[in-house]
Amino acid sequence: MILVTGVAGFIGSNFCYYYLNKYKNETIIGIDSLTYAGNICNIESLLKDKRFIFMLSEISDTDLVNFIFKTYNITGVINFAAETHVDRSIVDASSFIQSNICGVFNLMECINQNVDHNIFKDDFKFIQISTDEVYGSVENDKKFSETTPLHPNNPYSASKASADLLVLSYCNTYNFPGIVSRCSNNFGPRQHVEKFIPMIITKAFKHEQIPIYGNGKQIRDWIFVDDHCSAIDNILYNGNIGEIYNIGGDNELNNIDVVVTLLQYLQKNYDDSITTDLIEHVQDRPGHDKRYAMDATKIKETLGWKPSTTFEAGLKLTIDWYINHQP
Questions:
Q1: For the chain (length 327 residues), average pLDDT per consecutive 10?
Q2: Where in the sequence numbering do the catalytic residues fall?
Q3: Which ranges of the chain would DSSP assign to H, the alpha helix?
Q4: Domain 2-191+225-250+293-309 has CATH 3.40.50.300
């Protein structure tokens, strides 16, 4: 039985579906506070599954987290819970500090208080789901490795970097069974419509202008969410405590190229009135990182993981899902 936080969010909900589909005899205790980023519809099917136990709460709720550890035989924790949107963190960073730092601290303290360190085994792990954004921006042809110095450039990435360091410090100080995973940009079903790819899809079908920051030449490494889920699954059962694992999709693309590709696909396959005329260049946001690029050599070589979904195949699956789940 594992504890998964942020289960009504994008990656958290997809992981729960992935995990319960793969492991028929396993159970998930799921926590989510259902903020703007959490959608109860994302876990509608899970709520009907006896192997999924949902609790409405914040991860900073000490009493609730302690109750879970005292009541259930938890063998692992995966922390997806986080405030994630950079633009929101620029407007108000307070909720990011509370959830992304204080919430992680509370989870680890509850584990320390409820799980005997003498019985920590390799099958008990706390996985902190982080992001490539903690590294900042990378120039030229270089890529982020696990030893790349952290250089967060906005309140969101700074809060995630802080949590990463806190987890690693607990590993060193308290023999805490923590692991940090840092993934590149995810896309796929159930992602909030304020995010880049869902925003393009939903606005295109409404024939609304699609805002693109600056010249749109910012580069991101894209990974289909199911591939990220398979990497987390691998880390949960095979990863080494105290380690950092970078996860990437090997799909580096300019933002503007992603928009054009999406619009052309929608125009060809769904609505011929959707054109690139919908693109609207707007003022770039403060502290906008120019390029993210992940070196996932470590997880590939040590754990045998690699992505299996091409960007094109994942994009089609994503578009089809949003078309079938429009309000």
A1: 96 98 97 87 95 95 95 95 74 79 94 71 84 88 93 90 96 94 96 90 92 90 97 96 96 93 92 92 83 94 96 93 81
A2: 132-133, 156
A3: 10-22, 62-71, 86-91, 94-97, 103-114, 155-174, 196-205, 225-238, 255-269, 297-303, 311-324
A4: no
